[in-house]
Amino acid sequence: MKPDLAVQLLADVLWNALIISAPLLGVTLVVGLCVSVLQVVTQVQEMSLTYIPKIVAAVLVLVMFGPWMLKRLLAFSASLISGIPSHF
User: Fold this and answer.
1) How far apart are the C-alpha atoms of 84 and 68, rounded to whole Å?
2) In the 3-class helix/strand/coil scheme, how is the chain assigned residue by residue?
3) What pLDDT, on a 0 to 100 scale, did the predictor assign at position 2?
4) Do 39 and 49 meet the contact criterion of CB atoms below 8 Å apart?
5) d(Cα 88, Cα 75) in Å, to the nearest integer?
6) How many CB atoms lie within 10 A of CB 31?
7) Residues 42, 48, 51, 57: what is their CA dihedral angle, to the nearest 10 degrees?
8) How far is the C-alpha of 69 from the C-alpha of 21, rounded, in Å?
9) Rounded Cα–Cα distance for residues 59 and 79 (Å)
10) How far is CA 28 from the centre of its chain?
11) pLDDT of residue 49
């Protein structure tokens, strides 16, 4: 295996991981920020108020974007596995 191939494969893995996780991380970040602003404005410091909306948002994102995420992951895995013979 060539060193540049290993670097390219690592870059592809990291890029796909970023793209696949971006919707989930982005939505939970926005929901967490909104809840934090709400807590500062209302001065309500309830711990469950920080977790419950993020969990609900994460579940909704996984329901909506789950098939796309799985399809992208399977396509990347299939291309990676089918390319194994050409790497050696």
Assistant:
1) 25
2) CCHHHHHHHHHHHHHHHHHHHHHHHHHHHHHHHHHHHHHHHHCCCCCHHHHHHHHHHHHHHHHHHHHHHHHHHHHHHHHHHHCHHHHC
3) 73
4) yes
5) 21
6) 19
7) -80
8) 8
9) 29
10) 10
11) 82
d(CA 21, CA 2): 29
| pLDDT tens column, 43-62 | 888 878 888 999 999 999 99
Do 24 and 62 touch, CB atoms closer than 8 A? yes
Q: Whole-angstrom Cα distance, residue 85 to residue 74? A: 19
pTM score: 0.80
Q: How far is CA 22 from CA 28, 45, 80, in A?
A: 10, 28, 21
